[in-house]
Amino acid sequence: AHSLIVDATIETLLLLIVIIIIIVIIRAKNVIWKSTNFKTVLVWEPKPSANYSYTVELSPVGGNAQKIPNCIQSSQTMCDLSTAMTDPKACYVADVLSQPPRGVIPELSEFPHKTSPKFCPYNDTEIDRPKFTLEVSKGKATLNVTDSPTAIFNGQHLQTLRDIFSEQLHYKVTYWKNRSTGKKTSDSQTSMIEVTGLDQGESYCFQVQVYIPSRTYGKQFGDLSHAQCSEVENQSILDGELLYFSTVLTTKRNTSAFITSKVFVMNVQLQSVCAVVARILSRNPTAPPSGSCYSNRQ
Q: Who's near 79: CB < 8 A, 6+ residues apart?
């Protein structure tokens, strides 16, 4: 009889401990997804006290839940789920369970939990601004866009946006004359983009963003890249990159005084150095430069 009383007392104490723990454990709230280029993190509030911790379970919609190894009985309020989402075209939900810390008490009861909104990486991840190089020549601009890497692996291969979206990956180019407000756009399905019909002698600015036409409205466009502007395009190297003016202003004073003014306006280029050298080496400072450079400019 005495042992029965002791057992009942122990069970009552354990039940009271569980009730107290449940009371002091706070359910997670404000559970949201943060995802860019398939780098997907679940975040929530509040920061736990010493009385409880968080465990995250992830499940594809209609599938079985799995605990995330790095997010079991953790004091953190975030969990990186990028590598756990093996199918980017699937949709997922996550549960954030509030539990006692490791070693405090066995799981004798179902503790408070909060379920996240549904998240579909293919449609919902935000797309960061792309990087690109720019070349402009003879009224044509060539943009080489880098297909951004994601956080998803296919075996040992880190996949790019091109790997995941395939033919659905488009790039939208917005361009305009420098210091002008009028803008034009161009759409390309490739990472090498050519924009033609530009006015020679003008500087143009370009921005690029990812465009996924198969996505739902409002999620089709990624962030705009930083703008890149071209240099003013010259018609020829010798005519446009080295302008040489020599003006001789002659005023006679006592039949011997002369004033010579020379103005050089240069954009230093290797192809034009010969004209400068010819001018410097000339014995007569008022004479125009001679040689093939000057002759070609005529």
A: 41, 42, 56, 68, 70, 71, 94
Q: What gap in Å lies between CA 211 and CA 207, rounded to an integer?
A: 13
- Give the C-alpha separation, 92 to 79, whole Å: 14
- By residue count, the chain amounts to 298
Under DSSP, the state recorded for 38 is T
Domain borders along the chain are 2-124, 140-229, 237-297
Record the tokens describing residue 70, joined without a space.
Answer: 């790095």
- Look up the pTM and report it: 0.69
Task: Give how far Cα 52 sits from Cα of 24, 31, 67, 102, Å.
Answer: 8, 17, 17, 9
* Other residues' Cβ atoms within 10 Å of the Cβ of residue 92: 22
Q: Which CATH architecture has domain 2-124?
A: Sandwich (2.60)
Same fold, 2-124 and 140-229: yes
pLDDT digits (tens, 9 = 90+) for 126-145: 999 999 999 999 999 999 99
* Third-level CATH fold of 140-229: Immunoglobulin-like (2.60.40)
Per-residue H/E/C for 159-210: EEHHHHHHHHCEEEEEEEECCCCCEEEEEECCCEEEECCCCCCCCEEEEEEE
